[in-house]
Amino acid sequence: MRLRRGRGERTTLHDVASKAGVSAITVSRVLREPEKVSADLRQRILKIIDEMDYVPDQAARALASRHNSTFGVLVASLTNRAFLGFMQGVEERVRDTSYRIQYANTHNDIEEEKRQVRLLLSQNTAGIVLGGMEGRDAVSELLQRAACPVVQVVDIGLQTAGTAIALNHIEAAAAATRHLLACGYRRIAILGGSPDERSRRRIEGFSRVMQEAGLFELALIQYENAATSTQMGCRLLRRALKAVPDIDAVFCQNDDIALGVLFEAQRMGKRVPDDLGICGYNDLDFASVMEPPLTTVRTPLFEMGYRSADLMIRAASGKRLETQTIDLGFELIERKTTRRLSA
Fold first, then answer.
1. Measured distance CA(163)–CA(71) in Å, rounded
2. Do 21 and 15 meet the contact criterion of CB atoms below 8 Å apart?
3. What are the pLDDT tens digits along the chain (343 aa)?
């Protein structure tokens, strides 16, 4: 039976401890570090917490602790589907803990990124995950002075201070471009959205391979300074074909652009993959069920989020956060929007 208190009365940690016959420290440990309490005792205390409608006083907890039990997670765009996989990984790791997540959208803006970092630091946050690091140099001094642990999600080639979860965007783009060349395509364009640090490095990988093949032209790089979308893919394909009419393949910097390219190509009567090859990036959930299914570069978005949150939790629990860069890699997934490679 759920216990009710009078209006204005609040169940305290000591009330729960008294009911459970344990110390207040044990109840606090169940909420903050559940793995340190036996399963049977933990379940009994959690049941009493539920029966008594106990809600932890986060303000009091922050005063008594070195942090407020909140992780700040900064992402470059909340409308980019790629970041959804990253955030799902964060949520999965944090779900059964007492920590909370505070998201902030930096809009790929360096000044906004600095402002959000300052705000989180002023709130005595338990840790910060920086997804994107567009203003890496601009916020480096803030990060070095941070009293809380910081995990950066960056390109493997960027120099960072502290702990980083990384992906080599140059090599990933180069692998996609080499795949298109190996399939027999020669007039290959790259299509993308906001030219942030990640997309700039993908352009670098694409350009390097095309230059080595003697096939590079500046007009093959087409992008809009906006968040990626399916509609953008439609527009960019039209624009690319106007600039270079004999384009026979495109490397898209996100799968939603690739989906738009496919729709537009079908409207134009182009056969995919014969007349036009398409390679995406990220391997979003719809990529495998498109018709035809999308060839793309699979990036470990969920794992990036999960590992970032795991490092935060370990550090907030007192474990030392090592200075390291963790490369989670990528995988080229060949499906049916590109020609089959010769055996």
1. 16
2. no
3. 445 554 446 688 888 899 999 998 888 888 777 778 888 898 898 889 888 877 665 544 544 445 568 899 998 877 778 888 999 999 999 988 888 899 988 887 888 888 888 888 888 888 899 886 555 666 777 777 778 888 888 888 776 667 889 899 999 999 999 999 999 999 999 999 877 888 999 999 999 999 999 999 999 999 998 888 999 999 999 999 999 999 999 999 999 999 999 999 999 999 999 999 999 999 999 999 999 999 999 999 999 999 999 999 988 877 888 888 899 999 999 999 999 865 4
Q: Could you tell me where the DSSP H helices lie in the chain?
A: 13-20, 24-32, 39-51, 58-64, 81-94, 110-122, 136-145, 169-182, 197-212, 230-243, 255-267, 301-316
Instruction: Locate 63 and state its tokens.
Output: 């005063």
Asked if residues 264 and 252 have their Cβ atoms less than 8 Å apart, the reply is: no
In our burial notation (b when 16+ CB lie closer than 10 A, e otherwise), range 57-84 reads eeeebbeeeebbbbbbbbbbbeebbbbb
Nearest to 143 by CA among 124, 167, 162, 158: 162
Paired sense of beta strands 150-155 and 277-282, if any: unpaired
Q: CA-CA distance, 252 to 287, in Å (whole number)?
A: 12
Residues contacting residue 141 through CB under 8 Å, at least 6 positions apart: none
CA 149, CA 147: separation in Å to the nearest integer? 7
Report strand pairing: 331-333 vs 295-298: antiparallel
pTM value surpassing 0.85? no
DSSP per-residue string spanning 215-241: ---GGGEEE-SS---HHHHHHHHHHHH
DSSP state of 127: E
User: Three-class SS of residue 172?
Assistant: helix
